[in-house]
Amino acid sequence: MGVFAWIVKRDLMLALRHRADLFTALFFFIIVVSLFPLGIGPEADTLRLIAPGVVWVAALLASMLALERLFAVDHADGTLEQMLLAPQPVALLVLGKIVAHWLVTGLPLVVVGPVLGLQYDLSADALGVLLISLLLGTPALSLIGAIGAALTLGLRGGGVLVSLLVLPLYIPVLIFGAGAVEAHIAGLGSDSHLYLLGAIGMVALLLAPLATAAALRVSVE
Amino acid sequence: MSSRLINWFKFSSPATFYPLAGRLLPWFAVTAVVLIGIGLYMSFFVAPTDYKQGEGYRIIFIHVPAAWMSMFIYLVMAFWSALGLIFNTRLSAMMAQALAPTGALFTFIALWTGAFWGKPMWGTWWVWDARLTSELILLFLYMGYIALTSAIEDTRRADRAGALLVLVGVVNIPIIYYSVEWWNTLHQGSTINFRKESSMTTTMLYTMLIMALGCWAYTIAAALSRVRSIMLERERNSTWAQQLVAEGKA
């Protein structure tokens, strides 16, 4: 576990020293969510209806955009190769990187999401459900996305390619994430959606680091 | 044990599989043409008119086999991918790559014919039904695979990256399918229920089975033909490939 904590700490420190990077994904998220009322119109009834979907789709896109930096820098300066050669299990190192990446790019979305929901006139308890669904769902996005990031490492046009690979795999998270808020608004109760979101997160936590480690070995060798 | 293993792996080498594929190819191609010919004749002239849907239902004879193939081919790709990753056989990945365009083609045909069927029957080209949506996502998965393998120039990396992606996709397909299904029941968007299919007459059933077998034969023929090209292209520097080209047998 020592190496896990070490790599989380290292990646967080690196991220804090490049603060501009921290904000790009977050501001992308904010801008995308703010664009929808401009395109659709400011009627509060419509906005309430589309809010969960819009916030969640924007979160999907923002966390996908942030994926490119997950391994690219370490790959460019050779650190990644050293990590693959290290005696510690690669999946553990990968998990550490994903956790740090989520803290830097996913957690801000969780914090800002409900604020954006306010712009869409969501009620306070719907905002609470949105917060919980983002908290449960965004780690799964980082975990699944890491596989795509590892597969496309160092490829020409990797950014567009990763969207093609990762977005279809994000669909269940989108459905249950936005579904939780919608079900709550409709008075059906959001528990079942949140449980399923948590279950997807657990499966991703179990399998994604292994798949990512295998993908990194393929990409780096 | 070892002798049996050697038997199994004999054709995993492109040099031995290339001639075998060449010998099998015409048989499957002819079978495909004959079966699809019979199937099309039966679907247009022999199968009775449906009492509810009229003549328009006949598109089912291409729609359903295409949908079956689209799903089945992804599973076959996953099988070859797993085999390739486990045994490190080059041919497995080539088979997976040879199958992918045919799988994407059948997915597209299933969606396209579904739209043409939906318009006269339900008055709409598209509904966000669970089956339609998951078929669309399947098309995205095929496209992702094709895009990834063609973006990587190093063939060894392309093979293994593609194999990993297919396996990740196969784990995800049930999750995607059920999530889309539950999403659909929550929204209650479509009033059309695809489950309640009217019972088919035996002629219709046989026609559909013949078409399905024809599609199988076509898939095998197309994959064999494509894998032969891939083998030649990749092994162009090997002696067996150059010999074949020199003898004009390639």
What would you say this structure looks like, in words?
The complex is a heterodimer of chains A (221) and B (250). Chain A has 221 residues and is an all-alpha fold. Chain A has one domain. Chain A has helices at residues 2-17, 19-40, 44-65, 68-76, 79-85, 90-119, 124-151, 158-185, 191-220. With 250 residues, chain B is an all-alpha fold. Chain B has one domain. The radius of gyration of chain B is 21 Å and the shape is globular. The interface between A and B is medium-sized, with 30 and 26 residues.
Q: Any key phrases for this structure?
A:
A: 221 residues; mainly alpha; 87% helix; B: 250 residues; 8 helices; 80% helix
The general outline of chain B is: globular
Strand segment tally of chain A: 0
Largest interface: A-B, 30 and 26 residues
Average predicted confidence as pLDDT of chain A = 90
What is the number of helical segments of chain A per DSSP (H or I, 4+ residues)?
9
Mean pLDDT across all amino acids of chain B = 84
Order of helices and strands of chain B: HHHHHHHH
Instruction: Work out the number of β strands of chain B.
Output: 0
The tally of helices of chain B reads: 8
Radius of gyration of chain A: 18 Å
Proportion of beta-strand residues of chain B = under 5%
Proportion in helices of chain B: over 70%
